């Protein structure tokens, strides 16, 4: 599992976040400060991208299941799903049984599935593979993420790209510009300190010095952020019964994907000028006893994504949002001796939202024509990234992908 400590180490060792980017604003940005940048008129017409990273290496074969392929069942007899369990998408492929929400989006033609995505000369290291995905540079190590390069090229301000993760991902770091990291953690008060005390500190007084007024405003902002997070976690259900957001899970105040997406939704609805949001879900390194853990993760993913898309469909600004979901690699075709799967190569990428042209893109890799036991990628990840740059961010893909020329995918409906 690529936990927070590991991800911090990944950030430090990736070499992506340079001094220029840090000086340009990489780091923390207050949620209240972000909401103050709102410009509803512009936000309602601009394409927005939400990048969902599944850290650990998601098992694509048990996510988009080749239920009709005998090679699937023979390679992983204890992990393979019975065809009757799978949510059929066509006569060959189906979704994991825990992904009922995404199946509804598929039926509504709001879910596109890009099959067999990878990159040349696969690397099974979490660090290197995630670095490749976030920089979109599979051959040479580069000091910038692909969104970061777009920020460089457009001289964008930090709020143009925002991460609701504990650390700034290399994805959002350019060489001269960088996105902002907005912590979704709630307010933690020392023993004996109450919200009422903080509220009193946040009340301004007439004719007080500017620095004192600024400090008071910061205290008030803390309480407002806490209110927004509580509001996100306790949001009502969609009329169809689908939860719009998940509560935080586990011990402590670590944010769930549902809460991160709820904060994205709040920003979109408020009209902030952010064009790219980065959120994540950990835990996909399923080397042992995979079925239970993987199903739990996919349930959380399905609840969060389907609720978010339903919420985005209700406003004009929300209907400009496209979500892309990827992981650093898939898993090996054959199960291991611990009822799990080991690091593999290619896997599916989900693209979803009101603007998405639903359906399959690319071809499902063969389960018998393998590369040392691994799937052969049919699509280069830069083809997916280039399509998103072109169709969502209105950018020239070749400029930000070191001249890579691809046949961009029809992931969005023609307007």
UniProtKB/TrEMBL annotation:
Query: Per UniProt, what is one Pfam family of this protein?
Result: DUF1501
Query: What's the domain of life for this entry?
Result: Bacteria
| Matches recorded under PANTHER family | BLL7424 PROTEIN, DUF1501 DOMAIN-CONTAINING PROTEIN
Name used for this protein in its record? DUF1501 domain-containing protein
């Amino acid at each position: 599992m690529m936990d927070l400590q590991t991800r911090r180490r990944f950030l430090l060792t990736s070499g992506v976040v340079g001094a220029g980017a840090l000086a340009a604003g990489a780091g923390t940005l207050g949620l209240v400060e972000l909401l103050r940048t709102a410009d509803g008129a512009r936000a309602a017409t601009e394409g927005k991208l939400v990048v969902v990273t599944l850290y650990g290496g998601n098992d694509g074969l048990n996510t988009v299941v080749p239920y009709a392929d005998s090679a699937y069942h023979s390679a992983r007899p204890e992990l393979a799903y019975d065809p009757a369990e799978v949510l059929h998408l066509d006569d060959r492929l189906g979704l994991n049984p825990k992904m009922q929400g995404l199946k509804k989006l598929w039926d509504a033609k709001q879910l596109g599935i890009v099959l067999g995505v990878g990159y040349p000369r696969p690397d099974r290291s979490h660090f290197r593979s995630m670095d490749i995905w976030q920089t979109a540079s599979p051959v040479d190590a580069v000091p910038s993420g692909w969104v970061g390069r777009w920020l460089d090229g457009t001289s964008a301000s930090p709020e143009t790209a925002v991460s609701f993760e504990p650390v700034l991902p290399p994805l959002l770091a350019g060489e001269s510009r960088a996105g902002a990291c907005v912590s979704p953690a709630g307010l933690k008060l020392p023993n004996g300190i109450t919200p009422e005390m903080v509220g009193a500190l946040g009340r301004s007084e007439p004719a007080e010095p500017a620095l004192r007024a600024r400090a008071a405003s910061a205290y008030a902002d803390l309480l407002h952020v806490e209110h927004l997070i509580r509001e996100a976690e306790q949001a009502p259900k969609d009329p169809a019964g689908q939860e719009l957001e998940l509560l935080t899970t586990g011990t402590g105040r670590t944010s769930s994907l549902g809460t991160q997406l709820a904060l994205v939704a709040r920003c979109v609805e408020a009209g902030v000028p952010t064009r790219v949001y980065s959120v994540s879900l950990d835990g996909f390194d399923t080397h042992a006893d995979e079925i239970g853990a993987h199903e739990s993760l996919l349930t959380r993913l399905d609840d969060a994504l389907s609720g978010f898309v339903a919420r985005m469909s209700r406003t004009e600004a929300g209907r400009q949002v496209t979500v892309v979901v990827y992981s650093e690699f898939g898993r090996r075709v054959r199960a291991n001796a611990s009822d799990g799967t080991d690091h593999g190569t290619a896997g599916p990428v989900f693209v979803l939202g009101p603007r998405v042209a639903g359906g399959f893109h690319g071809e499902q890799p063969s389960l018998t024509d393998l590369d040392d036991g691994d799937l052969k990628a049919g699509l280069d990840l830069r083809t997916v990234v280039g399509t998103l740059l072109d169709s969502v961010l209105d950018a020239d893909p070749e400029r930000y992908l070191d001249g890579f020329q691809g046949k961009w995918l029809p992931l969005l409906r023609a307007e």
